[in-house]
Here is the input.
Amino acid sequence: MNGGGVWTVNYQKSGYLSVQRQAEVAWQDYAVLPEVVLIPYDSLVTAIDLSQARPMQVARGSLVTDGEGTRQATLLFPQGTQAQMRFPDGSTQPINTLNVWATEYSDRVVGRKAANTLQIALSGPHGGNTIPFQYDLDGLLTQAGSMTLSRNAQNGLITGTTVGSVSTSQSYSSFGELSSYRAACNSTNLYNVVYSRDQLGRITDKTETIDAQTDTYSYEYDTAGRLAEVRKNGHVISPYTYDGNGNRLSYTGVGTFHGSYDDQDRLTQYGITTYTYTANGELLTKTTGGQTTTYNYDVLGNLVSVTLPGGSQIEYLIDGNNRRVGKKVNGVLVQGFL
Here is the structure.
């Protein structure tokens, strides 16, 4: 019966997860496959069938309680989601059924297993692109699609990225603050920046090179720690002023902007934009150049709708626990949250 080539063997038993094995067998020969252990279904497994014409399929995680509280993760599979399995040799195979075990879903859990498991990449119904993600044993992202990320082995901070001929590199202070960043295409520098900081971690100087043009910026702060002045190549380009309560009164950059506040320190005008508030202090309107955006709230202070200057209406659906569970645009549901 054997004509040679790759044989695929499916192991199936009612109440158990199915298993598939492949073996390459010479013509008129046979092969002994390794022993297969079938795992029984349990109540924590959710079967996701991507071939079904259902608007949404949901896999919920089991409740997890630790020092950070109790939480339950949720995975959503909208209609049109595609799944692809990538084998260690680089080959891929589309799959229609996912058996999702309902534990806590996190990149850290996936990361610990990533080095020894097959990758499964999902693509949504709107884009059609499949982007695989890879993680190291600490659960930190090391690859997203064609981009690879390099990390410091001691602290996990990103030290560089590579996408095709474009690469970046960056360094940090002993406190984990960004000290320098460089972007290049092959051997050509595209962007380079170096930061200096004071003992409070605030940026005091920045040297920036774009192509062959280098500019130096310096930043000064007042005794309250607020940004007071920015200089470029020794010339003041952006002064800032504040009132006694710390509200910003003016800023000069591309134009000068002045701020006004009411007796409750609420911003009433900044530049050409004015703001009004409800009796409870929520933002009611924002008007810029005669174009007004209006905000509406329920009795508990939840934002329930926004009317844009052109008349478009955005609505937010709130459940009994004051959680936002949906968003509508002009009466059409565009987002749902579980």
The two ends are 52 Å apart (CA to CA).
